[in-house]
Amino acid sequence: MVYYLIALIAFLIDQATKYVIATRLELGEQIPVIGNFFLITSHRNRGAAFGILEGQQWFFILVTIVVVAGIVWYLNKVKATRKLLPTALGLVLGGAVGNFLDRMLNGEVVDFLQFNFGSYTFPIFNVADSCIVIGVALIILDSLRDMKGGEEITEVKESK
Q: Catalytic: 111?
């Protein structure tokens, strides 16, 4: 399925960018890209989004295993009559596996994308986080399209 290819591409880009940051920059080192608005900043995160639940590695590992298993099950069971939802799930899958691998191997996730809005600094994130957020946004969009179209999914059709 093409959706696993999307997940693989997201995963590979995430891992490649994290490798470059981890091997070429010192922790805390910054490279301005667009003035002080966008910087590449070498950072490590032992928590979830925005650093919440720091040190809860087994919780993240368990949740990721359940989410990945659910996505794989759903992608294998659902007949791809639409393109948006499986594409979104592919992005979420690639991002989840990327951060999962970091947590399993290093106990932390490499983050490096930093945006500043005046005096506010948005929490530093990575490509995997971006894929997950974009994927979830596309899932919401797909759901809203279903609601607007008056369609209701009553069964999941298995693909052959």
A: yes
User: Which of 14, 102, 129, 142 is labelled catalytic?
Assistant: 129
- The confidence band for 50, taking pLDDT boundaries of 50, 70 and 90, is low
pTM value?
A: 0.85
Chain centroid offset of residue 119 CA = 26
> Which amino acid is present at 139?
I
31 strand-pairing partners: 40
Extract the tokens encoding 52. Answer: 């919440």
Cα→Cα distances 29→36, 51, 62, Å: 14, 19, 32
Strands 30-34, 109-117: parallel, antiparallel or unpaired by DSSP?
unpaired
Burial of 46 (0-12, 13-18, 19+ CB in 10 A): middle
| Virtual torsion, Cα 114, 14, 1, 70, nearest 10 deg | -70
Which residues in 20-135 belong to E strands, given as ranges? 30-34, 38-45, 109-117, 120-125
Confidence (pLDDT) at 58: 79
Greatest C-alpha distance within the chain? 54
Q: Which tokens in the block code for residue 59?
A: 């919780």
Given a contact cutoff of 8 angstroms between Cβ atoms, the answer to whether 88 and 142 are in contact is: yes
Active site residue 129: yes
